[in-house]
Amino acid sequence: MDDYLRINEASWNARVPIHVASDFYDVAGFKAGRSPLRAFELAEIGDVAGRRLAHLQCHFGLDTLSWARLGAEVTGLDFSGAAIEQARSLAAECGLPARFVTADVYDAPQALGETYDIVYTGLGALVWLPDLTRWAETVVALLNPGGFLYLAEFHPFQNMLDDDTGTRVVRDYFNREAQVWEYPYTYTGDDVLEYQTSVQFDHGVGDVVSAIAAAGLRVEFLHEHDHTLFRRFAGLVESDGAYRWPAGAPRIPLMYSLRASAR
Fold first, then answer.
1. What is the domain count for the chain?
2. What biological processes does GO assign it (predicted)?
3. Parent domain of 36
């Protein structure tokens, strides 16, 4: 636990060049105008034109810059210096106004020194944070009155299931111990990572909602989705760029989204 931040920073710095070059992120497509934002995110967040948006744990900025293309005044924050360097370079190349800051998410209020209409956190972010209470309090400190948090995440229910078929319960949903992983690859392909250790933290949906409510935000909705962005289990089938269980098969939630407003 004492070293989780240093370990994960090294892991993510090593992933950046692999991710930038990957088909998964399709940076060339982004430069040509493609948006990686999901349809449900666009519908649930609504018009961002003229609004100040902070993207926490922004990686190398594709989602952040997509919000900029839609008219938001964006700031991205990530603890990976390599990711922020790439984000700044991409913003300059695409001619998109954006501010990118290197800092731990828990230090965001001090590192950014500003408040926002929208705090956005995208998929795969919360698993890297040990303390959701502190995270929610950080979000509140960044929000203007009447602003809102928008969170899209992979659903923790799927983490209970076996990685091959997704049909057998093999893990404890309520295990909150830090998990140390040694894995040679990142999720974008078969390129071997220079630094292969990471530390992750599972959080249940109840943990997330409770932390947000305790921090003083009002939950507007919690939506669960039956699709995900990659073939998480072998039985999922692709449809319109998303992966779902075949028609007629029992479904489980694979992602969820939440919006909560500041009072």
1. 1
2. methylation
3. 4-261
- Residue pair 91/69 in contact (Cβ under 8 Å)? The answer is no
Q: What does the radius of gyration of the chain's CA atoms come to, in whole angstroms?
A: 18
For each of the chain's 263 residues, which pLDDT tens digit applies? Answer: 679 999 999 999 999 999 999 999 999 999 999 999 999 999 999 999 999 999 999 999 999 999 999 999 999 999 999 999 999 999 999 999 999 999 999 999 999 999 999 999 999 999 999 999 999 999 999 999 999 999 999 999 999 999 889 989 999 999 999 999 998 989 888 888 888 999 999 999 999 999 999 999 999 999 999 999 988 999 999 988 899 999 999 999 999 999 999 98
- The contacts of residue 190 (CB under 8 Å, 6+ apart) are none
Helix/strand/coil for 229: coil
- How many other CB atoms are there within 10 angstroms of residue 94's CB atom? 15
Q: pTM here? A: 0.95
Distance CA 67, CA 73 (A): 8
User: What is the DSSP code (8-state) at residue 235?
Assistant: T
Instruction: Please name which of 161, 173, 171 lies closest in space to residue 232, comparing C-alpha atoms.
Output: 161
CATH number at residue 171: 3.40.50.150
Distance from C-alpha of 121 to C-alpha of 45, rounded to nearest angstrom: 12
DSSP-based three-state secondary structure for 159 = helix
CB distance 162 to 170 below 8 Å:
yes
The answer to whether 113 touches 87, Cβ cutoff 8 Å, is: no
Structure letter (DSSP) for residue 141? H
Which whole-number Å values give the CA distances from 182 to 8, 79, 123, 141, in the listed order? Answer: 12, 21, 22, 35
